User: Fold this.
Amino acid sequence: MKGLTPDRRVIKIKELFREYGDGDARVVALSGVSLHIEKNEFVAVMGPSGSGKSTLMNILGCLDQQTSGHYWLDGREVGSFDDESLSAIRNRHIGFIFQTFHLLPRLTARQNVMLPLRFSDAGAAAADGRAVEMLERVGLGHRVDHRPFEMSGGQRQRVAIARALINRPKVIFADEPTGNLDSRTSEEILELLCALHREGQTIVLVTHEREVAGRAQRVIRMSDGAVVEDSKCCA
Assistant:
């Protein structure tokens, strides 16, 4: 209808609970979390160990499912999808960056970046071209045929970022992406994430470091499975 504002929420969750175990062994990892994340937001999720931040990220990344509540990704309620459908969502719409890179040691940078395309309809030449394009985008056009053991930690994380970008995801989830890097390399990776955000990428970053969270637009703090603060970042 004329005059309506398009819904910019790429992520919306309502009354999300995640419980593990039964009886005396029952653990409530998430306790009624509700929030939304808009397209092109850069959001940091903070909290101590056991706060629920990793559980929340796993559900948002379709690696886990809630016990109850609702999760919409880009307008589709995905919280009740079966494993096959969730796998398709992860492959086509979500990019992951992990603290430990998760690269296959025997594959080159180019081959690692191409991995998410193995279930797509992209031909071999197109997949190769896109992998090289993504590696160039993260400053590794000269390292496309090097294997992880031939690269520094920062370079390996850049390969992981290129892999996360290959399918043009709706959202990138970054789990402690600078946790295994020195301060100078961490700054380079954070600046790369900021550059991707400026280009329009939606990013959700999990961290326990204030300095890292300060690079985001918005900080969500969690404790005991609940959101205790949701604020714009002034940095």
Notes: The beta strands are 9-20, 27-38, 42-46, 68-73, 76-77, 94-98, 171-175, 202-206, 218-223, 226-232.
